[in-house]
Request: fold
Amino acid sequence: MKTVEITLPKKIGDMIKEVMSELGYKSEQEFVSDAVSSRLLAIKKAKYTKLAEKINGLLKTKKISPDDILIDFEIFREKNYHCR
Reply:
């Protein structure tokens, strides 16, 4: 696995050392990797939630209901995949 080296302020390093063993991490690298992954996942979730809210608003503006979308999807699927 390729790695990236990042320098953190000493204060953050001290905080990591203080909590990592309490939480069961074996190394600072493991802790930081998990923390960054968790934060990136939270950012992606927020991004997609914001996008979903925008789409929902646009659908309401155009008076398109969830049932309208499902009906349209079923018609598309039947036409293109001959499903029933």
